[in-house]
Amino acid sequence: MPDLRHRTILIVEDEYLLACELETELRDAGADVLGPVGSLEDALDLVASGRSIDGAILDVNLQGSTVFPVADMLMDRQVPFVFTTGYDDLVLPTRLRQATRYEKPLDIAVVLRRMRQMIDG
């Protein structure tokens, strides 16, 4: 289990059970969890609030909306993030194709290890 103590991780996920599982695993790794939120509006509000965010896990499709505006805001703030999705990488706009993408169902341990690597640079 990666050590994410004193790191704030944003979860943007509209599948309730997966959001809860991510939250539990992140808290077990010592992270402070922001969210989870399941809508684009709530995610945009959290990022725009100026709260400190060390990393984010972003579901690509949120109730029919894409999470790309959130990803753009995080990129502007140089906050690392990963995408989770049931789609292939062609769904991502060209500007976001370099982002790490995990297909569902997730191996959460792998996602958390990658999050730690990204935060550590």
TrEMBL record:
Residues spanning the signal sequence: none
InterPro entries on file: CheY-like_superfamily, Sig_transdc_resp-reg_receiver
Alphabetical keyword list: Phosphoprotein
Record-linked SUPFAM superfamilies: CheY-like
Name of the protein this chain belongs to: Response regulator
Domain of life where this protein originates: Bacteria
Ranges of residues in domain Response regulatory: 8-119
One annotated GO biological process: phosphorelay signal transduction system
